[in-house]
Specification:
Chain lengths: 309, 317
Amino acid sequence: MTAPVTAASVALDGAVPTASPVAEAEAFAPSRGFWGHVGHRLVRDPVAMAAGAVILTIVLVAIFAPWITPMDPYKGSMLRRLRPVGDATYWLGSDELGRDMLSRLMVGARLSLFMGVTPVLIAFAIGSSIGILAGYVGGWTNTILMRTIDVFFAFPSVLLAIALSGALGAGIFNAIVSLTCVFVPQIARVAESVTTGIRKRDYIDAAKLSGASALTIMRVQVLGNVVGPIFVYATSLISVSMILASGLSFLGLGVRPPEPEWGLMLNTLRTAIYVNPMVAALPGLAIFIVSIAFNLFSDGLRTAMEIRQ
Amino acid sequence: MLLYILKRLLYVTPVAFGVSVVCFALVHLAPGDPLSAVLPADATQATIDEMRAAYGFDKPLPVQYAIWLWHVLQGDLGTSIATGRPVLGEVARAVVNSLILASVATLIGFTFGTLFGFVAGYHRNSILDRAASALSVFGVSVPHYWLGMVLVIIFSATLGWLPPTGAGPDGSGNWRPDFEHLRYIILPAITMSVIPTGIIARTVRALVADILAQDFVEALRAKGMNEWGVFKHVVRNAAPTALAIMGLQLGYLLGGSILIETVFAWPGTGFLLNAAIFQRDLPLLQGSILVLAMFFVGLNLIVDVMQTALDPRIERA
């Protein structure tokens, strides 16, 4: 089966040094080490830096939201419903229950980011483990694991996420479980392909001859060399995950009211598009900004790490 | 070639089997009994047992799976708990509507995607290239359900040019190919086409740039071939991959249409899935997902075979 474009084999451009950056720097004084080089290239990429700044700002807003919101995000007023953007009191307008949009968007960043990033993090841990195991051990283990993974590729991501959430029922926990199940196969496939690419390298043989156990080799030599490309691939999934997580809430399968979450806010404001279209479009704009920032940052990281896609 | 098709079929069979297991498992992932949602709260134990026996939920899981699979293979996807009608009929009607929408969106995406991709690939690092790259980042980053809302705000709520929801003047009835129905498909199709446009543009750009860098292009120019002739060679080399991606995108759109169909109240599979989920109509949910996943598996197979047929250089195990 042809792999989807996004999961196209991510190949390593030469081996990544296994030694820790510190040890490397001590051995070769002028060298910055691998991560040092990546950081150096990344700060010279204006697009990636701008995207990183946007992400950092939104993360900071999300963390400190309870202390910095101008108004109570839960307290509404039926008299002040759907105020327009630019209102003297409600800077970004008010929603269909008269709650302050700016405050709700700020607090909403917490759940939206949490639901977008968590599935990718969990899937990164599980998917890498499966992929590295399959790639390093090879043989029947590989066949069984990867053919099982193939089954999940038979479902388009959106369909799988909605099918699982729909069956499990609405809720934050169930939404995170469903999204994790969507990303594990994708990350595992990349991890397997990268691992298969390095398992015949000399340093793996050297480690074997030194008497290291398979588990140690996977943990030290393999992981150290494949974690970069897998990580970059995982960061590119965050944007998809944000859109899907908010999409689940938009359908009523994620966060439940009155909790502010961008996808859910977009859904409840749908009825307001004829009254106050600007306000109704705001939560979606927030999702879009975060999603594009993660995509651009991930692209910059890939270039900085010299990983070909 | 025949051997290759047989090999692919052999490879697809376990995947299809796995898909059927996942679809079957979906119903049993659900908390509580699949019947709990439809039975009244004061149903007596006797009624519950009778219903469980009628739907076969009292048998062990492997037996239930075998019976279910046997029925599926005969084209019986069960009965919708909510409407009491056969699931197959409901899904078939919805698939046609979804397929129309997804095909139109894929065609729009393919047209613009290849156009932008070719322009960008021919003029690398120019302003046009940057614009095409920006467009493809936009395409994969935008939450399409939001884009749909924005288009409705602009073209329906503000300008009043196009209808906001439904598939035709009779609301969410079936779509028909006439002028009146055509107005209804414009907004959802454009919304949906944004993703394939971005992905196809990005792929074609890389393909064209790769092909132009190859020695044979230089050789063609050296022997005096004009640019139009060279262009035809580039197209021939890029076509198999571009078409394969178009095929896969159709599958993704068909399976991922639920959000856009919900925004536009389009009477397709997404709309059906939405109803199935909120009425907890598990046989309908299971049946729709099975059909969509199998369609995707079949499409992948066709794409693989077509790609090999178009490009003899591809030799696959």
